[in-house]
Amino acid sequence: MKGHIRKRGSKWCFVLDIGRDPETGKRRQKWFSGFATKKEAQRAMVEKIAELNRGEYIEPTKITVKEFLEMWLEDEVKPNRKITTYDIYHSVITNHLIPGIGNIPLNQLGPIHINRLLKSLLDRGISSTSAKYSVRTLKVALNWAVKMQLIPKNPAANIRVSTGPSGAGMKVWTDEEVNQFLQVAKESKYYPAFYLAITTGMRIGELLGLKWADIDFDRGTISIRRTLQRTSAGLKLIEQTKTAKSRRLISISPSTVEVLKKHRVQQKKEMIQYNYRDVYDLVFTTRTGKPVEPRNLREYFSFLIKKAGLPPIRFHDLRHTHATLLLQQGVHPKIVSERLGHSSISMTLDIYSHVIPSMQKEAAEMFDQIIAVEARDKKNC
Question: A GO biological process this protein is involved in (predicted)?
Answer without folding.
Answer: DNA integration
